[in-house]
Amino acid sequence: MLAYLSLYVFSSISLCFTIFLAKRNFAIGKYRNRVYIYIAVTTLILLALEFATILLETSSSPSLVILHRILNIIGFSLSPLVPFILLFFLKSSIKKSFYIGIAAIPLYINAIVCIASYETGWIFSVDAQNQYIRGNLFMLPTLVFAIYYLAVFKTLLSNNTEDEKRDRVIIATIYSLPIFAIIIQILFSKVLLIWGSVSISLLLYYIYVCDMQFTYDVQTGIKNRAAFQKEMEKHEKSNEAITILVFDINNLKEINDTFGHRVGDLIIFDAAMLIKEAFSKVGQTYRIGGDEFCVLCKETDIDLVEGLLAHTNDLLVNHNKNGQQRIWLSYGYATQDKNSSENIYALFSRADNAMYIHKAKLKGDVSKSNNI
């Protein structure tokens, strides 16, 4: 009992600490931050319910039977909710109520069976002496939990195409802790580790996300100048073929002065997303200044680079036609073959100069800049 108490106290303190930090820090975005807090609070509730049922099992008082059953119903019903919410934390684009309703069907089935267990004993039963007994469908909540958790892992693999291999290993390790806890708990029914492991995973993930603030630009979500500098230094040692593309938002100061910095910030975000979309399959996009972006691309085929720049122009034209605040970009690029003797920073300087040449050509030519 003392060991479980220590585990629950430690886990609860960890969760409360991360909830407190999450309310102050929007490192992972407002939507995902809010979902993260929902996950942490749900886990706190499940920890409290699990410990309460452990305490109730120590008594044989018939007066506690109803409370014991109700707490077990709530606990078993809510247990798959954590990976369900986690799925939407990782895939924030799934917000339509239709898709949420479809995804929640296993959750509804589990809840109905759990509630019915009050009388049927399908998941569990509590006899007149307040003794807890597993039912024939006891594994259903765990199965539903596993289904959602597999979906979480699938989403992780598909969402993290930009993350370095080392980061994927870290994330996979963090999310694997509850899986090991489930396996141990299935093999040893008296051992209760799932919600303690989920608490530790949430704490570790939040620490990881906070660390990623030093790599990603909070405003746009793409990698920042520090990450760019690190990648440049890495390439300097490898001497691999590379293309550097530099982008700059035209007239941002005038836009800020005329429409306000809020509109300017939206333009910066939209520009980052457009560049990222155009080059996501061949390179990494970085924000290296207030209105300046850079793409490090391993492709050095000039036709391919020009084709991707044309695709960027098409994306900008479509964006500007939709009645949104217009974006104009200047750009330039420079390529370097494998084992070139040219310094990587000299290559960047060539790309940067090419961008300024392009900007000079666009100045005063409004009709041309509308297509860029």
Q: Which CATH-level-2 architecture of the largest domain?
A: Up-down Bundle
What series of H and E elements makes up the topology?
HHHHHHEEHHHHEHHEEHEHH
Mean pLDDT: 84
> Would you count the extended β strands for me?
6
CATH class of the largest domain: Mainly Alpha
How many separate structural domains? 2
Number of helices: 15
Share of helical residues: 55-70%
* Main sheet: strand order: 4-5-3-6
Structural class: alpha+beta
Distance between the termini: 68 Å
Assign an overall shape: elongated
Strand content: 5-15%
Descriptive account of the structure:
The strands form two sheets. A four-stranded antiparallel beta sheet has the order 4-5-3-6, with helices on both faces. A two-stranded antiparallel sheet has the order 1-2. Helix 8 runs antiparallel to helix 9 (194-212). Residues 366-372 have low confidence and may be disordered. It is of the alpha+beta class and 372 residues long. The chain has two domains: 2-212, Rhopdopsin 7-helix transmembrane proteins; 225-369, Reverse transcriptase/Diguanylate cyclase domain (Alpha-Beta Plaits, 2-Layer Sandwich), CATH 3.30.70. It has 15 helices and six strands.
